[in-house]
Amino acid sequence: MEFLLDYGLFLAKIVTVVVAIVAILVIAKAVGGKSGSAKGELEITNLTEQHKNTVDQLEHHLHDEAFIKARDKAEKKQEKEKNKSRDKEIKKASKEGDLDSKREPHLFVLDFKGSIDAKEVASLREEVTAILAVAREGDEVLLRLESGGGMVHGYGLASSQLDRIKAANLPLTIAVDKVAASGGYMMACIADKIVSAPFAIVGSIGVIAQLPNFNKVLKKYDIEYEQLTAGEYKRTLTMFGENTDKAREKFKQELEETHGLFKDFIRERRPELELEKVATGEHWFGTQAHALGLVDEIKTSDDLVVEACKEKTVLAIHYVEKKKLTSKLAGLAGEAADNVLMKLIDRGQRPIV
Asked: Where does it sit, as one GO cellular component term (predicted)?
C-alpha cells in the first residue's frame, strides 16, 4: 500500500512538471505572437571607441602614473580645442542649413559569413538598407567576407545587395581574411577594392553540381520509382530514376551557361582580369591572387579597421533576427536534418558557384 502511495506521488510530480513546461511554452508562444511586427534589430558597435579603450588599457601597463596623467591632460586640451572649433563650424552650417556636411565621416563595417544557400542575405539586406538611410558624403563601407560559395540565386541576391551600395556612390571595400571562393568571389568583385590576407583562398570561378544516384540499389531490391513531369526538361538528372545521356548533356549545357553568366558578371566588374586564365575553377592563395589581379592589396581586415580608426568613426553594423523561445527549444535537430536533405536534393538540380 505504501509503495502504491509513493508511486502515485511520483506520478503526480511528473504530471505537474510536464503541465508546467507546457504552460510556459504556451505563454511564450502567445507573448511571441503579440510582440509586434519587428523581426529583428540592429546591433551597433563603435569600433573606434573599442580600439581606443584597448590601447588605453595596454598603455596603463606600459607607463607610469605621471606619464598617463600628462598624456591625459594633453589629450583633454587637444579635444577641447577640437570641440571648440567644431562648434563654430556646426553653428555656421546650421545658419546655412547644411548640418549634414559637418558630420564626421564614418566607416560602416559589415560581416558576411555565407552558407551554401546564402541565407545570411536576409540580414545583409537589412544592414545595407540601414546604412543607405544615414550615409553621407565621405562615408565608406567595409565588408568582411567569408564564403566558399553556394547556390547561384542566393549569391546572386547577395551580390545585388552590394550593388545597392555602389549605386549610392559609397566606396566599398571587401576584405577576405579566410576565403572568398566561387559565389564568395562573385560578391567580392562588386567592391571598389578587394583586400586579401596572404593565405586566404580566392577564386574558384567555376560551377559544379553533383548528386548520388540510387537507381541500381532500388532495382536490386525490386523497388520501382516513378517520376511524372510535363515539359521535356522539367527534370534532367534524378537521384532515384535511370539517368540518360540526353539528360546529362542538357544538364551539362545548363552548367556551361551558368559559368558563362558568372564570367560575364566578373568581366563587367573587373575588366582588367585575364578571365580565361583565372576562370578555370581553380583557387589561389592571397599572394597568388594578387599577382593574377583577383585582389588589389595584401592586408587583413584588422589593418583596415585600425587605419580607419585614426580618421573616421568606425561602426560595426549587425542585424540580429529575433527568435521565439519556442523556436529555440523545439525541433532544432529535426530542422537541421531536413535542411541537409533539402540541400542534397537542391544540389542535384541547382548549380553551385
From this structure: plasma membrane
Q: Which residues of the chain have pLDDT under 70?
A: 1-13, 15, 17-20, 22-38, 82-102, 323-351
The structural architecture, per CATH, of the domain 41-206+281-321 is Alpha-Beta Complex (3.90)
Spatial contact of 147 and 124, defined as CB atoms under 8 Å apart: no
Burial environment of residue 190 by CB neighbours within 10 A (0 to 12, 13 to 18, 19 or more) = buried
pLDDT digits (tens, 9 = 90+) for 292-302: 999 999 999 99
Which sequence positions are flagged as catalytic? 182, 234
Q: Which residues contact 202 (CB under 8 A, 6 or more apart)?
A: 176, 179, 180, 181, 185, 188, 196, 283, 284, 285, 286, 289, 294, 295
CB 344 within 8 A of CB 47: no
pTM over 0.85: no
Long-range contact pairs involving 330-338 (C-beta distance under 8 Å, separation at least 24)? 330/25
Q: Closest by alpha carbon to 106, among 59, 151, 44?
A: 44
The backbone region for 113, taken as left when phi is positive above 0, alpha when psi lies in -120 to 50, beta otherwise, is beta
H runs (alpha helix) in 97-182:
121-134, 152-167
Domain ranges of the chain: 41-206+281-321
Q: Quick check: 141 and 162 in contact, CB under 8 A? A: no
DSSP 189: T
pLDDT in tens, 190-227: 999 999 999 999 999 999 888 889 989 888 899 888 88
Query: In the numeric block, which cell numbers belong to residue 299?
Result: 592586408
- Tell me which residue of 194, 192, 133, 182 sits closest to 155, measured CA to CA: 182
